[in-house]
Each structure stands twice: as structure tokens, then as C-alpha cells.
Amino acid sequence: MSLNFNLAWQQLRSQWQAGDLRALVLALVLAVSSITAVNFFTYRIAAHLNNQGGMLLGGDAVIIADHAIPPQYRVEAKQHSLQSASTLEFASMAIKADKNILAEIKALDDNFPLIGDFDVQFSAEKSVQNVRTRPAKGEVWVEPRLANALNLKLGDQLELGATQLKVAGILLREPSRGGDIFSFAPRVMMHMDDVPTTELIQFGSRVKYQLVLAGNAEKLKQFTNKMTPNLQRGERIEDVKTARPEIRSALDKAETFLGLSAMVSVVLAIVAMLLASAPYVARSQEAAALMRCFGASKANIENIMLIQTAMLAAIGGVAGCLLGYLVQFGLAHFAGKLFLESLPAPNLTPVAMGLLLSFAILFAIMLPHIRALKNIPTIQILRRNFVLTPNKIWMNYLPVIIVITLLIFLLAKTSKLALAFLAGIFGICLVAGVLAYGLALMLHRLSQNNIFDNIISLGMGNLKRRLGLSIAQIIGFSLGAMVLMLLVMIKTDLMQSWQSSLPVDAPNRFIVNIQQNQVEPVKKFVSQISPSESNPQVFAMIRGRLLEKNDLPINAEMFTEERAKRLVSREFNLSSAAEMQTDNKLLEGRWWRADEAAAPLLSLEFDIAQALNIKLGDSLTYDIAGSKITLTVASIRKVEWDSMRANFFAVTPPETLAQFSASYMTAFYLPKSQDNVLNSMLQQFPNFTVIDVASIMNQVRDIMSKLATAVSFVFGFCVLAGVAVLYAALVATRSVRLQEASLLRAFGASRRQVTLMLLTEFASIAVLASIVAVLVASGLSYYLSRYVLDIGYQFNLPLALSVLVLALIFIPLTAWLVIRGYLNVAPKQLLNSI
Amino acid sequence: MLLSESESENNFNLTHQPKKSTLAKNTSAILATNLSKHVGDGANKIEILNNLGLEVEQGESVAIVGSSGSGKSTLLALLAGLDVPTAGAVEVAGQPFSTLDEDARAAMRGAQMGFVFQSFQLLPTMTALENVMLPMQLANRKDAKQMAMATLEKVGLAERLQHYPKQLSGGEQQRVAIARAFAPQPAILFADEPTGNLDITTGERIIDLLFSLNLQANTTLILVTHDVQLAQRCRRTLTLQHGRLSAI
What kind of fold does domain B5-247 have according to CATH? Predict the structure, then answer.
């Protein structure tokens, strides 16, 4: 065994020195590092979420409700020896003198927090203190950005609704907010007992009530098991595992998406490895032939090859994991401060995945060759220039295809997505391949027309002469360029169309919580401040909960989709209108006539109707403030949510819900430097909540942009893998290129002519790869813009030209760097046959 | 114009150390003077060619024979400018050749020389026609295609223009290689064991073809071979031994 091991190692070393292995190892390292980098990154975020789970809740579990939590829940918790604390959260304006800002207010009882602590600064002189207490009665703690916005100092009074509270601390960190990418408004912490005096919680106010629990895990489990079936509508239990489902589901999606993006590079890298394995296998055949002649057994040959493959897989796997580890820092950096707190250090799970991948891919590629090598008759090995093809072609590729398919299923998690991805990648390769084939033939025809210099024609013609390899190189490079282009196109198109679709005076402020008697003054105010809104629209909002569809009860268990479950179990706003909003589009049914102003009809937004499987003509029963009302779906509308105008999922005729009390909202454009006008109105109506949508949209754009950068970083691997295909194809054709170069020199070609021919060949590959990338990426981008994202499509000429220029520089340069050694070879070696 | 055998016999001179002054008008196709080639240094120094001289007249056919490792291919490489001598010089048509830089030698090869190799050396990615066109394309000749087609027809491969080397038999491949060598009408043709990879019958046919084309084109032929019968068909046969040439 040790002899086999030594022989394997010796041969591996000499093959590395001869350069036969470099392209193979490079491609392997790329494949492993692209997968491990993504895994390191997503595992870090998942670990962060788990660590923060308990902190986020402020306890081990929490009961969340959109209404006051029944007191018996607390009693029940006590019976299970669990500690409990109550909190409630709502949004409201925080005001100081002439300034105001929307704040997320959290009121805590004396028991909070059960787990975790706060970092608070209690005086300007003292440093930050780590405390496990809560604001005292009559006091608040505020986040620094709120203090800055309102110019608040410690000891100042902060106006919250009908009361004034003293700012006793600057809140720097709280357990229940460990880095929430979706919290846009600054936090104000207050004592639960002060809530009634603010008078902020009124009928229709949106408040999140929580009962935080902590204690023995077994007891908690018993409690959860007992409570879960008895929870009322609008109530749910979350524990560390189920906390933050929106982030978790976003993370799951990101993990799948990044994993599949990395898979594009893995597939390309495998193509590169298949090409690059040819010289290694040929060299191994020579060595095996010699060893068989000297008496080595089939088993010896097989063992040596297996050991070599394992050694290569280990080397590639370790190097790939190291590179992946370095790259994930880049990913975390580009993702920016999506997470306010620093991510935990990466763990080693992805290393196992990386090593496994390395062994799986390499053995899949090598096993058919090893099998063939082992079974070859000795006499055949002795023949000069023997060609070893005892395997059928499909057998050589079958293990690789199986490994790729398994990986895709593993990464995609659902078979539907995996099949879609497989079909997608196959389809794109097929389209790119057919395009490359057609273009290469066109180029060959062009090269025969005596338009170009003979050397240039020869270079162009080389594409057709090595058609299979040329197509592999074109697909390899164009696939890498394509995914990057697609990302840039979609990102740019999305941002541009979003910005250009918004008129300059698109609403940038929403006012909610308007009471009926305040509607007219608000209308007057808006038409004064925003002259374009001569007749500002104020919308009624009535909170209702969907109870039945066609007289049958409807509940969360009936749906599998998370969004549908959420929509069914919460209250949502119904509005009423005589006319359909101009930016809505009627898809089905009809809008009501003037004589149907009080008819029990309903117009539903398309997405919600689809999520809840509601059809035109269905009757829906809502619970509004304890009363039931049944409405018939008269129309389905499409809503442009990104128009920034106020819009509603469910709208009734103007008089249908007249008997219910409503709160109102409006949206308007607040010109810059008009904040003081708004503030004076807010002092008049303290119950109003103003939402600065412009700044929220900016933050959303910022997050999208950071995520896109992180994703393009992963796609960078695809480009590198494309280059690996190029490199591997060059290595695979090394001997024939060497022969060509020597022959050309023997026939009198100058070094310049041989170089020119090579550069022409690879410049042609660059041009064709760019054309394929631009055509396919534009086609996909057109489809996505037009049919998926529903935005206008525009051909991105500067991007297409940039890809062409970069390819024209990069591809011939890479080729020249790899082959320049052959260009100087003395042609006398052609005579060595004597 | 093709020289008669008696005329040509008087026109060549073989000497180990030819004196330039004795040569008539410098019209030799190739003149090698004091040619040496060494590899390695000091104790490891191996002398492959040692102070060798050779003069070949235009239109002459010369066979160089010698045992394996005698330096035949090295001599051919030096004469064709594929390698440079350690000492001495090669002139082609009275012009300095071995002292030129590599690209200048390549240009001269392109203009005046053709090659036939033992292992054919056809490019596997090119058709028979493209292989034959290649040297003429490198010389930027506009009539490359016509010339190539005409020569392939002469070697009996008019029907095989679009075939790739792997679709041709060994004999056919060597006929393509011969067509490639003759098509540009070179002044000098170097043949490196042209029948080495062929069976006897095919080898004989190839030799007939080679000499018939050589006769038609009045090309100077320098042939390296083991094959005594082949060597005898040349006007002169020289043996390379211990780094020097001697006439048989």
C-alpha cells in the first residue's frame, strides 16, 4: 500500500510540475470555493439569527396578539412555573417643541426583560451602562437617532400623545431589537403604566401585544403544547426557532438563490475539469502502460489512480475551502450593515460540505477513466499512440451528471425549483450553444471570402476547426458574463423604472390615524401645502378580519403559503370608494355603479385574491368590531404598489360600511423645507401618525443595492469559472497547438504571424461570446422586465459594449499568457521522429 | 531547367572543408561551412556535428543516411534554419542564412523551402485542402486555393479535398504532405524519412511520387533516410558518421 502511495505521490508531483494538473486543480478549487463561500456566509447569518433568537424575544418564547392578551394566559404560565412579562408596541409621533418624528414605542412592565439586557447612557458624563431594568414610570429611554432628530438632551421632556415624559436615558442596545433590517423608525422605551395617559391607544390603533415567557425548557414545551390549540384568532406563539419568520424565510430564499448562483460556477468549473482532465489522463495512461509492462497488476494501477484522485480532491478541497473562507468576508462586507450587529464567526460546517463536494466531483470525473485504464489489455497499452476509449461516451459523463443533479436538488431544496433550475441551465446552454455554432460557421464563411489578411482568416477559421471546444469556450465565458449582465440589467432597469415612474410630486408622506372629524381640516391642509392636490383624497380605513368564504369558515391551517396564513390570521384594512383609483387596473368583473353605493360588494386586489384562492363572485364574511358583514367579490384589481399612492387590498362601495366607525388616511407630497408647516398641524392633531415614505423607500433601495452587490460578488465566480473553461480548453489543446505552432514556423511563419493568428482566434471567441451573452441576457432581461417585474425594457448598449471590450481584452490576453511559451518553441522538434 | 545527370555530376563538390574561393559563382542551393553542433558543457559536452561541410547544387537530390543518433535530424534542422549551429555557417542560394535571426530565417524558409516529415505532420483540425493551402496562406499568396487544388489533383487526391487527416489512410496523408511541400514551388525540399511510417508498397508509391514531382519542378531535394533503396534513387548519397559526412 505504501508503495502505491509513494508511486501515486511521485507521479502526482511530476504531473504538477509538467503543468498537466494546474487547470484541473484550479477549476476544482473554484468549484469548491464558490459553494463554501456562500455556505460560510449563510451559515453565519443563520447562526446570528439563532444566537439572537432569545435576545430578540427578550425571553425563551412569546405569545403575540393584535389585541390585549387574556389574563388567564399569564395565570397558566405561572402554573407551569414560567416567568412572564408584558410588552406592547405601536407606532406614534414623538414630539419636542416644533419637531416630530415617527417612533416605534415599546411599553414594558416591571418584569421585562426576562433574558438579555439593555445598554443605556444615563448621563452625558457617565459611560454606557449595561442594565437589566426598564424605564421608571414617567420616564423614557430613546435611541440616539431620535434624540438627534428632535435635538433632545437627557432630562428634556418628550411629548407622546397627551402626556409628556422625561428622557432619562439614551438607549444604545436593546435585547428585543438585535439588528432588525426592517425597523425604520427609532425606538422609544416607556413604562407600561404610562400608556393610558398618552391616550395613543384608541379604537383601531394597531398595537402588538406580547407576553414574554422564560423558564425550564420542558415546562415551556408543555405550556406551548397546551396553549397552541387553544390560541384565539390573531394570537400566536413564537420561540427561538420560529422567531422572525420573515427574516428566516428571506434567509432561506437567499441561501437557495446564492447556492444556485454558485451552482452555475460549479457546473462551469466541472466543464473546465472535464476538459482539463484530458492531458492528465493521457499522461497517466503512459505511466500505467509502463507499469503494466513492468509487471504491475490491475489492482496496483487502480489503487494508484484512486490514491492520486483522493490526494487531488483533498488538495483542491482544502484550497477551495480556504479561498471560500476568505471570500465570505468579502460577501459579509458587501452585504454591508444589513445586520446592525457584527455577525458571529463562521463555523466549520461548510468545510465538510466543501470537502465532500471536492471528492464527489473529482471521483465522478476520474472513475470512468480509472475503470477504463484498469481494464485495458496490456498489448493495447504497448501500441504507439494508442487511444483509450473502452467506455461509451455516456458512461464517461454519467457520474458527473448524477453528481450535478444531486447537488442541484440538495441546494434547491424543492424538486420543483431543482427541475426548473436544471431545465433553465440546460435551456440557456442549448440556446448559447446553437448561437455559438451558427456564429462560428458564419465567421468561418466570412474568413473564406478573401476580405481579411490570410493570417487573420486562418485565426478566424480555427474556431470552426475546433468547433466543439470553441463552443464550450464560448458557452463558458458567455454564461459567466450573462449572469453578471442580467443582474446589472435588472438592477439598473428596476431602479430606473422605479424612479422614472414616480412623478416629482409623488406622495412622500402618509398620514394615518385621522379621525372622522379631522378629515376636512386635513384636506384643507394638504391642498394648501401641495397645490397639485386640488382635491386630496382621504381614505376610510375599517379594520376587519376575514371569517368565511362562501359561508365556510376560513383559517390559517387551510393554507400552506406563509403569506396566506398571515393574511388570514390578521386583521386588515377595508376601504371604500365611489371611483376606482386611476393607478388601479380592473382585471375581472366590474366596478360598481352610482346606484350601488350601499351594495354589499367588494373589490379585491389580485395578489391577495390569488394567495387566498378567492374568485370573482365569492362571498366573503368579515368580522368588523364584533359585527359580521358578508360582501360579494365584484371585481379583481391590479394595484401599482410602487406608485407610492395609498392603496387597499379590499375596497367596498362608499356607503356599504357606513355604519362602522373608521379611521382615515391620506398621502401627499410635502415639499422640502415645509416640515415646520407639518409640525404645526401635528401639534393641532397629536393623534396623527406621519410616515416618511421617501426615507423608507431610500432605505429599501439601499438594502436592495447592497444585496445586489453581494450577489454580483457570487456571480463573479461564474466569470472566473468561464475563464477556467477557457484555460482548460487551452491546456487540453496544448499538444496540438504546439504541433501547429512548430509547423507554422517550419513553413516560414514569423513569430508575429503565429501570435496574430492566436490572438485572432481568441478575439473571435471573445466577440462571439459577447454576442451570445448580450443576446441571451437581453432576451432574459426583456422577458423578466416585461412579464415578471412588469417594468419597461430598454436595451443597455453601454453595458453590452463594456462586455465586448472587456472580453476583447481579457480573453486574448489570457490565451496569450497561457500559450506564449509554445510560440517560441523551436520547430526542429518536428524532426525528432528520426 | 532540369540538368542532365552527367552535367549535374560535374556541378557538385563535396568536401569536409570547402573553400569558398574554389566554388564557381556561389550558385549552390545550400552551402554549409565548418558546421558544428555541440550540446552540454565541459565534461558533459556532446559533439553531434563536427566541422562538417556540404554543398548542394540547385536541382540536385542528396540522400543523407546514418545510424540512429548520428545527428541526421540535427543536420537537417541546421540546413533548414530550424536550429542554429554552435559554429560554422549555412548559406542558401549564396545568401547568409544561419546568421539571420529566427524570423528572417522563417521568412526565407517560407519563400524557398518545403518539408515532408516522417509522421506527416498534417494538422488534424484542417481538411486536406486547408493543410496544403497553409504554407501559401502564410506567404499571403492569393492563388493559394487554386495551387493547392491543382497539386492535390497531381497527387491523385482531387476527390479528397474536404477530408480530414483522420479520414485518410497513411499513404494518402503522406500524399497530402507531399502536395503541401510542392504546391508553393519551393527551391529546396527537405524530406525527413518520408516513408518511415508506411508499409513497403505504399512507401514505394510515395517515393515514385516524390521523385516524379521533384523532376518536374527541378527542386533541390535533401532527404534523410534509413532506407538504402530510397537513398539510391538520389543522385548522391552521403553518410553521416561521427559528426562528419562522407560520400558512398
Answer: Rossmann fold (3.40.50)
